[in-house]
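It is worth pausing here to work through a concrete case rather than discussing structure prediction in the abstract. The textbook approach is simple: state the sequence, then state the predicted structure, then interpret. We follow exactly that order.
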Amino acid sequence: MKKFLVVGMKKSGTTYLHEQMRALNQIYVPPLKETHFLLNNNLDRRTFLFKDYIQKGEKFSDENDHRFLENLFVNLLGPTVENYIKLMSSNCEISGECDPELILLENEKIRVLAQENFKIVCILRHPVDRFFSHVKMLIPDKNKNPNQIIKTILANDVKELQHQVNHSCYQVLIHKWKSIYDSSNLLFVDDKNLRNKKKKTMEKILSFISDEAFSRLDDDQLVDDKNVGSKWVLDGDLREALNRFFEKDIDSYQSEINNISYP
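Step two, the predicted structure:
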């Protein structure tokens, strides 16, 4: 049994990668993304999660999905790393999930995952682009210019900016995972490559999590990118200011991206 996790941060491409993985028959991921199993000890939150799975039961398409739901119900009663391992080991030969916020996992839990040989796929996105996309997501009125929101934050509320920046602190987050995980079980992927070189990127990911060489995927196994984007583009002067603010994290991001190669 091989187990893997996809971690990242919000607006970094984990949803698209989850959709890609659901379309493959070589591996298993749950029908609903982000169980947050390891992040929530609150009983109310776990109850809500289970109800959400039941209500969206039409997304359960095969026996593996039904088995996952059964094991989720049993193991939600005790959200420990040990029960999470049982949950992720209950389906196919290769199984895992995409949960971006697992990148924030505590060191103690990361160490247990490392001991259990979980493969970790960490998907990254340029910190400024991720930040801008995150701000757009938080604005209810999609006709409201996010550039104005960012200008207001920069001028009046640096604490709010720092809160959002924390979602892109690659310097800290990458260091934490690399300090615990063996490099052979940790793969960094760029969101741009996932979208623009999706076939080669998915083959690379599959080879990594399966410890086998996937020579080729069929085109009909790949999912089109449904992200139609937004009419809003980050203003040049704001990009310069945010580039300075994110300088160390951009360096960390770029360092990992430069190491990505394809056969």
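Step three, interpretation. The domain at 2-28+92-126+170-229 is CATH 3.40.50.300 (Rossmann fold). The two ends are 26 Å apart (CA to CA).
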